[in-house]
Backbone:
């Protein structure tokens, strides 16, 4: 039986670019300004889901009344703080990210990016990666009803690539990526480059875990063996 | 046989105060300025050892020539960046930290703080915690020849408390705390509040792992059972 290459669907922050810790402290800053006291490591563990869901969850867990105004203000303040922390070109692609995407393109393996971020805020991140969204399948928060841990982003990416998500690989750094991949029935591969532990990713369903995109590219034959 | 209560020897950053992520991004900033490209998650995984050893290790791993000048400059730049990121009172005690220390004092259980930080830089952190270093055993980098993962800090803390380190509990958030505790033959208790994963702490020798100081205080009978 002929086999086709698996498509690769990538998360963006923490998976292809080194931006997770800046996002974490930007959320910390936004929450502090709103008088919501959360330890930084707990914010880190929530990162990767949609900003709206993230703020709603935090408010619910801390018992602060959830209002549309407050959710919107938190997201606005996060965006401002992230701009301060990540401006000036300090956020860079992770080791091997550009090379991995180039290798996939050179080998005619379809790939896409599916991020919980909004279109506007991901534009600069994509530019740092050398990805032209007009030439690449990029699915953002604005394209789907529900972001991770719902499977919609990955399903939309597979649809636009014209592949079956059940034969695709989902690459992510957070447990929300792994959980959303399971819900989409894709195989999930975890990367440590977002700062989660290996066991956290495995418990959330990672089929394999690599250090970063460079480590994945080095072992690409283990996950994308060719005939 | 009469038993005595175990003494508690605490790490500071990530164990009693919520300062790890600010330290991580401060190191990132210092390394960027020195032209040394390291992903943030790898910096996070090195945090907790002495600043001098940390910079020496990073330089060795990245193949950058190690000079005294460079090590000193990196530490200076880290201190400046940390001041920017953690100034204005944004670094706070972790949930339950003050209450845990008060509980130990109220129950006549000896405790001390042993940190890889220098005396000057820890002064404000101690103040945020309500700890008066003239009334408490506080061992800093300046008091010992080698910081973590060497056991010297914990050994010095036990000596100043007048207890045997082999019957003491060491509380920390990083693998370096767990490793240094093992070398000192103390029992190590890991806290997740520095952002390491549970398995990382257990593999490095943690005998128990709790979420944060509040979680440890809630379960204090499990680790410090009284007659």
Residues:
């Amino acid at each position: 039986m002929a086999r086709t290459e698996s498509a690769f669907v990538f998360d963006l922050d923490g998976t292809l670019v080194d931006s997770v810790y800046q996002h974490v402290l930007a959320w910390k800053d936004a929450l502090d300004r709103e008088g919501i006291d959360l330890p930084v490591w707990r914010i880190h563990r929530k990162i990767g889901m949609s900003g709206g869901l993230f703020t709603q969850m935090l408010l619910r867990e801390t018992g602060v009344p959830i209002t549309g105004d407050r959710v919107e203000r938190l997201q606005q303040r996060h965006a401002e703080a992230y701009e301060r922390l990540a401006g000036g070109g300090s956020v860079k692609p992770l080791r091997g990210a550009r090379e991995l995407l180039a290798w996939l393109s050179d080998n005619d393996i379809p790939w896409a990016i599916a991020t919980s971020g909004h279109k506007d805020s991901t534009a600069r991140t994509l530019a740092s990666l050398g990805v032209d969204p007009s030439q690449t399948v990029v699915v953002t928060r604005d394209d789907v009803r529900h972001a991770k841990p719902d499977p919609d982003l990955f399903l939309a990416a597979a649809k636009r690539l014209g592949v079956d998500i059940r034969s695709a690989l989902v690459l992510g750094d957070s447990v929300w990526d792994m959980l959303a991949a399971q819900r989409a029935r894709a195989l999930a591969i975890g990367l440590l480059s977002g700062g989660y532990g290996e066991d956290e990713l495995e418990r959330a369903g990672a089929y394999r875990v690599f250090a970063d995109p460079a480590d994945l590219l080095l072992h690409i034959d283990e996950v994308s063996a060719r005939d």
Remarks:
- The beta strands of chain B are 8-10, 111-114, 137-139, 169-172, 187-191, 208-210.
- Residues 68-86 of chain B form the longest helix (19 residues).
